[in-house]
Design a protein that fits this description.
Strand 1 and strand 2 (29-33) form a beta hairpin. A five-stranded antiparallel sheet has the order 1-2-3-5-4, covered by helices on one side. It starts with a helix and ends with a helix. 17% of the residues are buried. With 146 residues, it is an alpha+beta fold. The chain is 28% helix and 16% strand. It has helices at 3-9, 59-78, 132-145; strands at residues 24-25, 29-33, 43-47, 84-89, 108-113. The protein has one domain: 2-Layer Sandwich (HIT family, subunit A). It contains three helices and five strands.
């Protein structure tokens, strides 16, 4: 089944309903594997409390998640990987279009070995270094909201 089709079938949160897939567990989070992996050994760290945004996690939840991320990286190293990526995903699937990257409405943290992020940007164009003018524009946009 394609991931986008899977998302359309969701009735309950797959992370809140994934107790049968726990690899390791702590007080406030658990480590599992990705059902729609970018790589065979793609792991996920998921807070037990249903939270949509990383900004809504408590410091104790973040500390707990950090410990399991370290465990996930240790597992991947024991499996022989040297290069790994950590990323966090949050989002509301109802606000996404087909062109968007979709995500589960429960913040989650990926530990992915040997992932090739790629030479293409979010729009499918070849990545390039920004010009000084583009850098200035981006910095100004960010500074306006800081």
């Amino acid at each position: 089944m394609k991931y986008e089709d899977f998302l359309k079938t969701l009735i309950v949160c797959p992370f809140c309903n994934g107790a049968n897939r726990i690899i390791l567990e702590s007080d406030k989070s658990f480590l599992t594997y990705a059902l729609a992996p970018y790589h065979k050994h793609h792991l996920l760290v998921i807070p037990k409390r249903h939270v949509e945004s990383i900004t809504l996690l408590s410091q104790s939840e973040l500390d707990d998640i950090d410990l399991l991320q370290e465990k996930a990286l240790g597992i991947l190293k024991k499996l022989g990987y040297v290069n790994m990526s950590l990323l966090v995903r949050e989002g509301n699937v109802e606000t996404h279009t087909i062109e968007d990257n979709k995500s589960i409405e429960h913040v989650h943290f990926h530990a992915i070995p040997n992932i090739h992020i790629g030479d293409l940007d979010h729009y499918g164009e070849v990545r390039r270094i920004m010009t000084n003018i583009e850098i200035d524009n981006v910095m100004n946009e960010i500074k306006q909201v800081v």
